[in-house]
Amino acid sequence: MMHSRRTQTLRYFLLFSFSIFFIVPFGYAIYTSLLSKADIGHLVLPSQWTFENYKDIFQTSDILIWYKNSIIVTFGILIGNLFVNTTAAYSLARINYRGRGVVFFLVIGMMMVPYQVMIIPIFSMIVDLKWLNSYQGLIIPFLFQGFLVFLMRQFFLTVPKELEEAAEVDGLSKIGIFYRIMLPLSKGAIGTQIIFSFTGTWNSFVWPVTLVNDSRWYVMTVGLNTLKNRYFEWPNLTMTGVVLLTLPIIIVFLMFQRHMVQGIATTGLKG
Question: For labelling alongside 99, which of 26, 44, 119, 215 has CA 20 to 30 A away?
């Protein structure tokens, strides 16, 4: 009993210690964003903090446009991922058809190809389609995510076949089984998929900065990069942008954290 308590105490201590590495940088960003220009580089009391930086960044930049673009692109990709990845994973896990193994092999193969290798051919196709500086150019190439297909497939493999067989006896089709049985059971895995898809898209920089050269189409990451170049001597304004960029990720994570833990715990490596 004593050994178990010591082990648990050590585990919590290690988790707390690791969490410091993630909490301190964001805490520093929040603190710096509340400093006036005269207080930069100094340790000041909360009574001297100010929200003027947030007011200034909204008045002197196009951050509302960047936010709008990021929201549209992120939710466009997220909704596409939930539909494409989940249905593809269901077909790979529960439907027998010729070539299924080859399709799954291709999905796994795509996970092994570095993202940077695919940028040039994707960019060439986007140029041919005249999708530069457009939402479709930012969204459509990323509606499919190999890792998330693999994640959902592994979950669907853990669902007992008896549930599917009973549903077929009751007259449900494969589509009916998917919507009425599989989806309600996969809330944890879907929550995990939402977190991965949202954070990956919201934080993406390489593809948006490659595709977009018009400031009206900047997403938050690209816009804040220009903000950093403009206000490099005022870290308080730069950190204000960092806080505004990070807050949506924290909110989404807190909303789906329980589902993510459940999804990771229940998604095995079967198959």
Answer: 119
